[in-house]
């Protein structure tokens, strides 16, 4: 029964992240990364990784998949995975919210290698998209301001799932 509950929690959090991303699509400031970070932070690396992979897959099924889909899944999955290992203190949490926006951009930059084999073209494409990574980082931080409101909810659910 506990496995069903864990699956339900990941599914609900995935749905919340997907709806958040679709509702604010286009601004590059959506709550998806923030929800993935909270999932990994509270529920562990397995649930964080699963959350990240599923958010990338499900949102691209709605918005349209492409060569970038595996890179989005990898970026968010990596963020969910690493979030588990971030110390449970607010300065680290806020710092990770910002860093994760740029980490996602770096992972996505690897998709440019499918478009061009010229490394300078890839670097130029990455640098031209750096402003969007900054939007992502700032958006994560803005959503992160509301993190303490959810900490009790996530902590209570973590305890009910028996996660240490």
Report on the architecture of this protein.
There is one protein chain. It is built from eight helices and no strands. It is mainly α and 164 residues long. It has one domain (2-160): Arp2/3 complex 21 kDa subunit ARPC3, CATH 1.10.1760. The protein starts with a helix and ends with a helix.
Provide the residue-averaged pLDDT: 93
Fraction of residues in helix: over 70%
What are the segments in which pLDDT stays under 50 over at least 5 consecutive residues? none
Total count of domains: 1
CATH topology: Arp2/3 complex 21 kDa subunit ARPC3
Beta content: under 5%
Give a quick summary of the entry:
With 164 residues, the protein is mainly α. It has helices spanning 2-23, 32-43, 45-63, 69-83, 90-109, 119-128, 130-144, 147-160.
Give the secondary structure arrangement, pairings included.
Layout: H1 2-23, H2 32-43, H3 45-63, H4 69-83, H5 90-109, H6 119-128, H7 130-144, H8 147-160
Helix pairs in contact: 1-2, 1-3, 2-3, 2-4, 2-8, 3-4, 4-5, 5-7
Features:
single chain; 164 residues; mainly alpha; Arp2/3 complex 21 kDa subunit ARPC3; 0% strand; globular
């Amino acid at each position: 029964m506990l496995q069903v509950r864990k699956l339900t929690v990941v599914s609900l959090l995935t749905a919340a992240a997907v709806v958040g991303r679709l509702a604010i699509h286009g601004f590059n400031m959506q709550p998806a990364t923030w929800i993935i970070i909270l999932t990994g932070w509270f529920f562990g690396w397995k649930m964080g990784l699963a959350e990240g992979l599923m958010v990338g897959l499900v949102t691209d099924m709605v918005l349209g998949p492409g060569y970038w889909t595996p890179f989005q899944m990898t970026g968010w999955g990596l963020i969910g995975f690493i979030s588990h290992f971030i110390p449970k203190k607010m300065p680290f949490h806020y710092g990770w919210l910002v860093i994760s926006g740029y980490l996602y951009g770096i992972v996505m930059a690897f998709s440019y290698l499918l478009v061009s084999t010229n490394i300078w073209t890839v670097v130029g494409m990455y640098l031209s998209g750096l402003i969007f990574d900054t939007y992502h980082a700032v958006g994560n931080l803005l959503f992160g301001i509301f993190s303490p409101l959810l900490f009790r909810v996530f902590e209570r659910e973590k305890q009910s799932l028996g996660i240490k």
